Amino acid sequence: MASTITGVSVGLGLSCSTTRKLNQKRNPSSSRLSFCSIKMAVSVEEEKKKKSFTLEKSEEAFSAAKEMMPGGVNSPVRAFKSVGGQPIVFDSVKGSHMRDVDGNDYIDYVGSWGPAIIGHADDEVLAALSETMKKGTSFGAPCLLENVLAEMVIKAVPSIEMVRFVNSGTEACMGVLRLARAYTGREKIIKFEGCYHGHADPFLVKAGSGVATLGLPDSPGVPKAATYETLTAPYNDIAAVEKLFENNKGEICGIILEPVVGNAGFIPPKPEFINAIRRITEENNALLIFDEVMTGFRLSYGGAQEYFGITPDLTTLGKIIGGGLPVGAYGGRREIMEMVAPAGPMYQAGTLSGNPLAMTAGIHTLKRLQKPGSYEYLDKITSELVQGIIDAGKKTGHAICGGYIRGMFGFFFTEGPVYNFADAKKSDTAKFARFYQGMLREGVYFAPSQFEAGFTSLAHTAEDIQKTIAAAESVLRQI
């Protein structure tokens, strides 16, 4: 049966005033933290110590890369197309910091796009990987470490009774869609505008302005046949979803969504939204699929489904469960997962799936997250960060809104509120680009796109947060 979302408003405010009020209700002691001290300007002495900011070596390396790799990168957002300027080539990471090939140091809020929740290059994880590597890097056969991580995932995530490990979030979403279609015998799937589920053909779909739009390919090379069965609706729009089911009775295998959108910026669900989606899928004998590649083990140890109290039928995971190594997974109810080969007829395979290095890093990352106070700490530092940036924006005369849940956050240069991708696109992206470049010079690394969520980690310190807010206020006064 569907569960009711409780406490969903906590930390989800999309305006400065709402975020502060919710934070005060949730944790009075943290609301009394001195934002004045957090926002104190970097001293003149510190400014003098700063060496001049240069990206000469990054520029040289990137120029060479463009001759060998499309656009000079292996994933498009890294090319800085939406923020302009010189893409940064990094040399090393540790804790909450990254260092580029020019020797510039940055406080990092990308975290390898989410996996680095306990910090980069954690000593315990590295030590465990070193021991595992002595036994080999890939078996192409079962290993005991798969059992260990599988048991940890099953115990943690409410919806997962059986799990299949793969090598990426894209692969996990490909597998879970095939499984949903195999189990239900239906082909149509609903996804939401602004939600990203990897680059597989069925998911590269434009969301139309109508409530029941048949998808068109977002990328050349994707045939219309591959997206013909993909239906789209605006995120947080219950009526649009109900209309899709009404117009496609008995044809929809399920709904897939990011329970908190991270690939259109940080967009949380309205309190009633996910609860309604659970009800609608049950009424129509369709499956509810949570894509928790970003939110899994980040909003809580049991992911967004534990945080919101809503249990889907199937779940995809990635990022954190590999501790920074390539990994993905999908899982769900036993009766559904037993459709997967070799237990059942739905085929999916992978040479490096369940490889010992990814399993080891995942095991030791999850062990760290089990320690008491981990998510309370993430909540504390992220609330301070978001509130500090929003306050700085308001103080310096900018339209700005934002929100957070535990170690995931985002902000937009618009008054808000932001409930879907259409709202997100009202953000002043040119201003974000100026802000982004200014923050780089101040030694702060955000995702190089207005439409990506940010991430904090257990390695971020109070000093990191203070420096970031001070830098933000300084930059916001200049743009």
From TrEMBL:
One of its GO terms (molecular function) is glutamate-1-semialdehyde 2,1-aminomutase activity. Its EC number is 5.4.3.8. CDD domains: OAT_like (cd00610). GO terms for cellular component: chloroplast. Pfam families: Aminotran_3 (PF00202). It catalyses: (S)-4-amino-5-oxopentanoate = 5-aminolevulinate. The keyword Nucleotide-binding does not apply. Keywords: Isomerase, Porphyrin biosynthesis, Pyridoxal phosphate. One of its GO terms (biological process) is porphyrin-containing compound biosynthetic process. Pathway: Porphyrin-containing compound metabolism; chlorophyll biosynthesis; Porphyrin-containing compound metabolism; protoporphyrin-IX biosynthesis; 5-aminolevulinate from L-glutamyl-tRNA(Glu): step 2/2. Its cofactor is pyridoxal 5'-phosphate. It is an enzyme of class 5 (isomerase). HAMAP family: HemL_aminotrans_3 (MF_00375). Belongs to the class-III pyridoxal-phosphate-dependent aminotransferase family. HemL subfamily. Homodimer. NCBIfam families: hemL (TIGR00713), PRK00062.1 (NF000818). This is glutamate-1-semialdehyde 2,1-aminomutase. It comes from Populus euphratica (Euphrates poplar).
